[in-house]
Design a protein that fits this description.
elongated, mainly alpha
Amino acid sequence: MMIKITFLGFILSSTAALGWAVLQDSNRATAQTKGGLPPDAGSSSSRGDVELVERAISARREYEKSLRALHEYYSGNGDKQRMQWAEQEIVGYHLLFKPSYNLEVKDVPPANLTAEMNIREANDLLRTAMTYKDKGSGNDYILNQRRAEILFREVLEKYPNSDKIGIVAYHLGELYEGRAYKQPDRAAKYYERSAQWTKGSRTDTRMRAAEIYDKQLNERTKAIEMYREVVAHDIDNDRVKQAERRLGELTGQRK
């Protein structure tokens, strides 16, 4: 059953922590202090846009925080008109397309998280997120996907050792691939994380990542890497055959 709660009420009650993102910042700062390279040097996190992306993320958070404060102030003072203005602007902010300019800056958690504990609070967040995912139409659909995203990400940020993080990453991949976001690079990376955090291979997560790299992002090297992961780990014969066929086409080594 769909939970009945206004989007504003949902946002005002959201208290997601930064979790692994704070640790990422700490690791980067430590490496720079020691004169070394930051983690994953040579990857996108070492590009020149890191500081600019961090500033944009900080500005977004401060903007939303200021709108919440305005809403609280006008609500407390009984100014209904300005309270409604603040509410409309908060909703508008969450409807706004906000891309992840650099996936390694406070976005995608590291591959070495360990899914090892059954945590009740994480399970509750996951269940609630699923009551919103893929529900509604029009703006309600977009807002429901935002709700689901916030809750999924809260699992990763607050409970990075939950045994559900692989499932959560898969659902985030679907969200980012879907029409509410249309961010294939983000989707592919979360599908990758799902495979890395999930024992065994009972889903199509590697294949979905491979096909995005192959057909949408035109990243041949990554596509080959992921197709090889499918061949090495997947237990679905059809996916393995499909991956082998495409590998042959990409590498010129058809059987």
